[in-house]
């Protein structure tokens, strides 16, 4: 198990319906050190559900389970399950604003119940050795003053939590959809920076609106870690430079083609009866974002990865299409150069 505190310098956010185990395996091909989070899993699903909600690939480490719930006993029970399965961390969701989450008494509404979160932290830490962390907002509704925020942090930290990942937006629990809650309330990075200054012994990571590694490096001057979500999902090759830029690891950066080969091998290894290549391919649509052939890549995967008879060699055939487009573009550029040279001569 790696030093999880170092991996928290850069992490990929838990994203419902997105960061499943196939997505995480893909992202791990791009960065060895980035901390990956599961989708949020509720205590009810783990305790009463029939599916294996804790399944993951060993290659995903370091990987953290994000847990949704507010009953301290249930949270502790699920933390034990996570530790037994080998997760590197368990994280409490105190940030999701959706109605599903609110009605279940967990997520962002718990910002108003710091004592309940503290009880869960204490109960979980009494049962497991892996870190118990909290992902929260800077506030909710009209509880959006710094004093409200710092009180929440202080109460939960006093129960033993020393790591907080803070989405630098408050959540409106009335009148805004989860999508709007990601975009409408303004970002307030200075409030998170202020928290770190006030509590220097706590590990504080910042989340929300960070779209480049340069922006991440700037944030690391003020906080301990950066969590990126939708930008990594839309443009995953961003992760390929994280190890060198954020972790100072000089390992070779994989090419997009190398990643495609690895992911095709991964698809070929799947033996679940209901598995389809699209379960993997949907997470890779952005691999050629901004590159020649990127649109061809997305179109081929979308057209041939779904339906009753998906292409079993989906990624390799898509790669051939991209290679052909890039070769054509190179030839076109070479012709332009030759034409220009002849005109000058």
UniProtKB/TrEMBL annotation:
<feature type="site" description="Interacts with tRNA">
    <location>
        <position position="93"/>
    </location>
</feature>
<feature type="site" description="Interacts with tRNA">
    <location>
        <position position="182"/>
    </location>
</feature>
<keyword id="KW-0820">tRNA-binding</keyword>
<comment type="function">
    <text>Catalyzes the synthesis of 5,6-dihydrouridine (D), a modified base found in the D-loop of most tRNAs, via the reduction of the C5-C6 double bond in target uridines. Specifically modifies U20 and U20a in tRNAs.</text>
</comment>
<feature type="site" description="Interacts with tRNA; defines subfamily-specific binding signature">
    <location>
        <position position="179"/>
    </location>
</feature>
<feature type="domain" description="DUS-like FMN-binding">
    <location>
        <begin position="12"/>
        <end position="319"/>
    </location>
</feature>
<dbReference type="Pfam" id="PF01207">
    <property type="entry name" value="Dus"/>
</dbReference>
<comment type="similarity">
    <text>Belongs to the Dus family. DusA subfamily.</text>
</comment>
<keyword id="KW-0819">tRNA processing</keyword>
<feature type="binding site">
    <location>
        <begin position="207"/>
        <end position="209"/>
    </location>
    <ligand>
        <name>FMN</name>
    </ligand>
</feature>
<feature type="binding site">
    <location>
        <position position="167"/>
    </location>
    <ligand>
        <name>FMN</name>
    </ligand>
</feature>
<dbReference type="GO" id="GO:0050660">
    <property type="term" value="F:flavin adenine dinucleotide binding"/>
</dbReference>
<feature type="binding site">
    <location>
        <position position="66"/>
    </location>
    <ligand>
        <name>FMN</name>
    </ligand>
</feature>
<keyword id="KW-0560">Oxidoreductase</keyword>
<feature type="binding site">
    <location>
        <begin position="14"/>
        <end position="16"/>
    </location>
    <ligand>
        <name>FMN</name>
    </ligand>
</feature>
<feature type="binding site">
    <location>
        <begin position="229"/>
        <end position="230"/>
    </location>
    <ligand>
        <name>FMN</name>
    </ligand>
</feature>
<dbReference type="GO" id="GO:0000049">
    <property type="term" value="F:tRNA binding"/>
</dbReference>
<keyword id="KW-0694">RNA-binding</keyword>
<feature type="active site" description="Proton donor">
    <location>
        <position position="96"/>
    </location>
</feature>
<dbReference type="GO" id="GO:0010181">
    <property type="term" value="F:FMN binding"/>
</dbReference>
<keyword id="KW-0288">FMN</keyword>
<dbReference type="InterPro" id="IPR018517">
    <property type="entry name" value="tRNA_hU_synthase_CS"/>
</dbReference>
<dbReference type="InterPro" id="IPR013785">
    <property type="entry name" value="Aldolase_TIM"/>
</dbReference>
<protein>
    <recommendedName>
        <fullName>tRNA-dihydrouridine(20/20a) synthase</fullName>
        <ecNumber>1.3.1.91</ecNumber>
    </recommendedName>
</protein>
<feature type="binding site">
    <location>
        <position position="135"/>
    </location>
    <ligand>
        <name>FMN</name>
    </ligand>
</feature>
<dbReference type="InterPro" id="IPR035587">
    <property type="entry name" value="DUS-like_FMN-bd"/>
</dbReference>
<dbReference type="InterPro" id="IPR004653">
    <property type="entry name" value="DusA"/>
</dbReference>
<dbReference type="GO" id="GO:0102264">
    <property type="term" value="F:tRNA-dihydrouridine20 synthase activity"/>
</dbReference>
<feature type="site" description="Interacts with tRNA; defines subfamily-specific binding signature">
    <location>
        <position position="298"/>
    </location>
</feature>
<keyword id="KW-0285">Flavoprotein</keyword>
<dbReference type="GO" id="GO:0102266">
    <property type="term" value="F:tRNA-dihydrouridine20a synthase activity"/>
</dbReference>
<keyword id="KW-0521">NADP</keyword>
<feature type="site" description="Interacts with tRNA; defines subfamily-specific binding signature">
    <location>
        <position position="295"/>
    </location>
</feature>
């Amino acid at each position: 198990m790696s030093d999880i505190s170092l991996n928290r310098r850069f992490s990929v956010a838990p994203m419902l319906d997105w960061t499943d185990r196939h997505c995480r395996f893909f992202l791990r091909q791009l960065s060895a050190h980035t901390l990956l989070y599961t989708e949020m899993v509720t205590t009810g699903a783990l305790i009463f559900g029939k599916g294996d909600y804790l399944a993951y690939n060993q290659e995903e480490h370091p990987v953290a389970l994000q847990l949704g719930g507010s009953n301290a006993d249930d949270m502790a029970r699920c933390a034990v399950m996570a530790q037994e399965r080998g997760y590197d961390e368990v994280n409490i969701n105190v940030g999701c604003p959706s109605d599903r989450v609110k009605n279940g008494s967990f997520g962002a509404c718990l910002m108003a119940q710091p004592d309940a979160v503290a009880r869960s932290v204490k109960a979980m830490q009494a049962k497991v050795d892996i870190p118990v962390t909290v992902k929260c907002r800077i506030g909710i509704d009209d509880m959006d003053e710094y004093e409200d925020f710092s009180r929440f942090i202080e109460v939960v930290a006093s129960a033993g939590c020393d790591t907080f990942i803070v989405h630098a937006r408050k959540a409106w629990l009335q009148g805004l959809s989860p999508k709007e809650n990601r975009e409408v309330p303004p970002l307030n990075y200075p409030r998170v920076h202020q928290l770190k200054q006030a509590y220097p012994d706590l590990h504080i990571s910042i989340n929300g609106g960070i779209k480049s590694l340069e922006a991440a490096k700037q944030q690391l001057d003020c906080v301990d870690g950066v969590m990126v979500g939708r930008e990594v999902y839309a443009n995953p090759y961003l992760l390929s430079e994280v190890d060198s830029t954020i972790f100072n690891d000089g390992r070779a950066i994989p090419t997009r083609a190398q990643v495609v080969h690895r992911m095709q091998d991964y698809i070929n290894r799947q033996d679940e009866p209901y598995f389809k290549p699209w379960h993997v391919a949907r997470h890779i649509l952005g691999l050629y974002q901004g590159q020649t052939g990127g649109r061809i890549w997305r179109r081929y995967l979308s057209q041939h990865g779904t339906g009753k008879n998906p292409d079993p060699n989906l990624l390799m055939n898509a790669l051939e299409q991209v290679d052909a487009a890039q070769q054509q573009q190179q030839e076109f550029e070479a012709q332009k150069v030759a034409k220009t040279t002849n005109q000058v001569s």
